[in-house]
Amino acid sequence: MTKSWARIILFVRSFLPNNFTGNPVLCNWVNITPLSALLVLVLLTSCVSVKKFNEKLSTPVAAEKLKADVDYAYASLQELHPELYWYISKDSLDRKFEAVKKTIDSPLTPAEFYRKLAPVVADVRQGHLRLVLPDRKLNVDERKALKLQKGLFSRYNYVVEEDRIFVKDNADKIPNMEVGTEILKINDAPASELISSYRQLNNSDGYNTTFLRYSMAKRWPYFFTAENGILDSVKMETRFKDSIQTFWLKREKITAAEKKTEKEANRKLTKSEKGKTKDYNIITRSFNRDLQFPTKDSTVAYMKIKTFSGTFSKRFYRESFRTINNSPANYLIIDMRDNLGGSLSEINNLYSYLTAEKFRFIKDIQITKPGSMFQADYFRMVPNITKPIAAVAYPFYLAGTAFSIKKTPAGTFLRNNGKTAVKKPNKDHFKGKVYVLINGSSFSAASILPAKLKDAKRAILVGEETGGANDGTVAGRYSTRKLKNSGLQLPIGLMLIQPDIEFSGNGKGVIPHHEIIPDVQQILQKKDIQLEWILQDIKKDSAQSTGPDGKS
Prior knowledge:
Elements: H1 3-13, H2 34-57, H3 63-80, H4 90-102, H5 110-122, H6 140-147, E1 157-161, E2 164-169, E3 182-186, E4 189-190, H7 191-199, H8 210-228, E5 233-240, E6 243-250, H9 256-271, H10 273-277, E7 280-281, E8 286-287, E9 289-292, E10 300-305, H11 313-325, E11 331-335, H12 344-352, E12 359-360, E13 366-367, H13 387-404, E14 405-408, E15 411-414, E16 422-423, E17 433-438, H14 445-455, E18 460-463, E19 473-482, E20 489-497, E21 514-515, H15 520-524, H16 529-546
Helix pairs in contact: 1-2, 7-8, 12-14
């Protein structure tokens, strides 16, 4: 046995009681082997690292070190983020970073420091850019217990109206949380104060405001958990109709057998042909894509796309548009409400089914400098199971990246990679009239596609100004910078992605042709006044097309 292995075994044995003679289930500790020593070493060091990590989250950091983190965060943004001063001047952002340093005159915990720096990052007004406070790590027993519990806040969807929180969905029909219930207090903290305090941590693209209510409805549980940790229960004060009540909202237990049954059912569905093509989402328990014909005569096709995940999307659009073109449908409604974006390739492909002309979907992708793409989070994008393959492919990734970069007098760009090329319309493209439903939660790729359709005069947009900017966004690949003293993380988008359109220059989202904004009660009552408007408009258009005698 080598000296190294001997040291490892001695280290492992140092954690054992003197009279410990072994556990036949695990191994014979009297004659411990190098492999078993290594496994136990990994387990012990993992436990130690979890403890140290969590202790660091609650330990105040010296003011000078935090100021160094502020400087590093700003320097990283200046180095990597394209169009950093798109919505805020350099002088103004300089002053904000300097101002936050002046407020740091004593040690702060990472969470306290996050509260100071996150609003400054939000002032950049880029919806993809946000500071991240690391979560408390769980040990093995805690992770195991959490897997056998259902969520606390995550089992509901919410509506946030100004500083008020309402329960939008209660799929599991949990008592005391009926649809329409208003949350007044959580652990005696007024919901209005929580939302007000979280608002400064939230941001959207440019001067858009429609995104914030939808974003807050999704993110307030994250902010609450970041401050309070993962809780087994919370004290709730709610109002439903005219009744106010106080109760404890608790995590429900789920047995290992129930968990296994649920996992198997999800696996069967997601692996089925329907589950693949429509992209079944086990979290929402629904399909991310779907095609329906809502009218009896099938003259209207309705395509709902909840996210541009990219998963089997080519097959879905190929099959869907063949189905549409073989049907009587001469109207197509594409619903991109509450779609937070995703795959650029998917929306590029979808657009090819909606146009009859050659097109260039996006402009050349701009980056800050040739070296920025080499700092992208390559391995973060890869599942653990495929990381060995990714490691082998990494040199080819680096080579491909190097050849894709071009410097011009206008800046540094990525060469044509198919997404920026001129493309032909798909042979099965739809020739009828297109309506697109959008709202404040149509973001990123779900803003780029409507912007392109509107510029090309190919669709009628109905609903609400999109949360993502009309003129493009900074996203794509990211480089995550860790602020070493506080441990906060800053994922920075490296790519300026802009649709190939005439820019509005107003710093707003995509403005619909027909603005229709439902109020809170209509949302809670599931009244879809936006879709109803389109169906009525189609009736009028169809009547005008056929004429008074019923003929075209």
